[in-house]
Amino acid sequence: MIHLIFFLIFLVIVTSSVSSSSSPLSCKQESGGFSSNLPYPFGLGEKSEIKLNCSKIGEIKIGEFVVKNVTSNKILIHFPANCNRSFDKLNNLYGKNFGVSSRNSLLLQGCQSPSSKCLILSSLIENRLGSQSCDISGLSSNITCYIDESGFEFLDIEKVGNNCSTLLSSVVVDAGNKKVDNNSGTDVALNFNTLELGWWLVGNCSCHFNADCVIVNGTDPHGGGMVRGYRCQCRHGFTGDGFAAATGCRAG
Ligand SMILES: *[C@@H]1O[C@H](CO)[C@@H](O)[C@H](O)[C@H]1NC(C)=O
Ligand SMILES: *[C@@H]1O[C@H](CO)[C@@H](O)[C@H](O)[C@H]1NC(C)=O
Ligand SMILES: *[C@@H]1O[C@H](CO)[C@@H](O)[C@H](O)[C@H]1NC(C)=O
Ligand SMILES: *[C@@H]1O[C@H](CO)[C@@H](O)[C@H](O)[C@H]1NC(C)=O
Ligand SMILES: *[C@@H]1O[C@H](CO)[C@@H](O)[C@H](O)[C@H]1NC(C)=O
Ligand SMILES: *[C@@H]1O[C@H](CO)[C@@H](O)[C@H](O)[C@H]1NC(C)=O
Ligand SMILES: *[C@@H]1O[C@H](CO)[C@@H](O)[C@H](O)[C@H]1NC(C)=O
Ligand SMILES: *[C@@H]1O[C@H](CO)[C@@H](O)[C@H](O)[C@H]1NC(C)=O
Description:
This is Transmembrane signal receptor. It is globular and about 50 Å long. By secondary structure, it is mainly beta. It folds into two domains: 2-199, no CATH class; 206-252, no CATH class. The chain has three helices and 18 strands. It starts with a helix and ends with a strand. The strands form six sheets. The protein has a six-stranded antiparallel beta sheet with strand order 5-6-7-8-14-9, with no helix packed on it. Strands 11-10-12-13 form a four-stranded antiparallel beta sheet, with helices on one face. One 2-acetamido-2-deoxy-beta-D-glucopyranose (NAG) is lined by residues 203-204. One 2-acetamido-2-deoxy-beta-D-glucopyranose is lined by residues 203-204.
């Protein structure tokens, strides 16, 4: 199925540069602390359930990476193609409450056993990298891609490994809304230069009464295996963050 999606990539290039008119995330340091338009459970203060950072120029950050958006189940990170990014940087994207989602297709270089799975993808990336100062031309560059097929929500970093030296980029494959269109492929969207993290809260479910508690098998950032987490999701017909401690869910 996933291989089919990659085959169809040619058909959907047009969707690749997603831009949205809604206002992007930003933050500001003020005398009393930080202010931002982050929704619960995200925040910048020490007491936030999921604490992110605010840069001097008002960008929300996780480690060195800029957070583009957060949604009810994911965090989207700006992850531009960079042929000089060490594979180990992936470790920095696993935290107490978030981890690298298995919907990312990682583009790797310098692997001990390269595969040819992503020839189409690498030629697309090549076009997008433009004049970057690294050799990714043609087959000699041996770009490998890693696609997780384990069925778990998060990438197991040990399995990605394969002793790759470089983490070139990531593409989020969004297989879209099957309800809208049965014809697999036509609604596949590719989000280039983006890395998707999944998030969770730990502890007992504390959701609004019009929300479902979704159990999340998170990952321990220190390699301790699975962590039981949860997220709240408003039921059909309701909108909101779903958490009892925040705005909950409202009809409509
Ligand atoms: C951020 O995500 C929300 C929820 O999915 C969406 O409505 C909004 O358009 C997104 N904002 C940007 C700037 O992409
Ligand atoms: C925020 O910055 C602090 C101090 O530099 C760092 O220890 C922490 O890991 C950062 N948190 C995130 C989510 O990047
Ligand atoms: C690539 O990274 C190495 C080590 O981090 C650094 O020494 C080198 O200058 C970088 N090269 C480029 C082109 O950024
Ligand atoms: C790319 O792969 C080919 C065949 O597997 C190999 O001969 C070549 O050395 C590799 N090139 C690099 C730069 O790793
Ligand atoms: C990766 O490298 C280490 C040491 O260099 C080696 O022991 C291990 O077998 C390698 N793993 C793979 C998947 O090639
Ligand atoms: C989608 O597929 C299901 C079963 O294959 C079918 O019953 C349904 O009518 C299809 N929906 C659309 C919009 O084509
Ligand atoms: C979860 O609920 C149980 C039973 O009510 C309680 O004993 C436990 O301390 C709670 N755990 C947390 C982390 O709040
Ligand atoms: C979470 O892990 C448990 C136990 O390993 C498993 O039974 C369950 O299906 C997993 N849930 C999801 C959503 O992956």
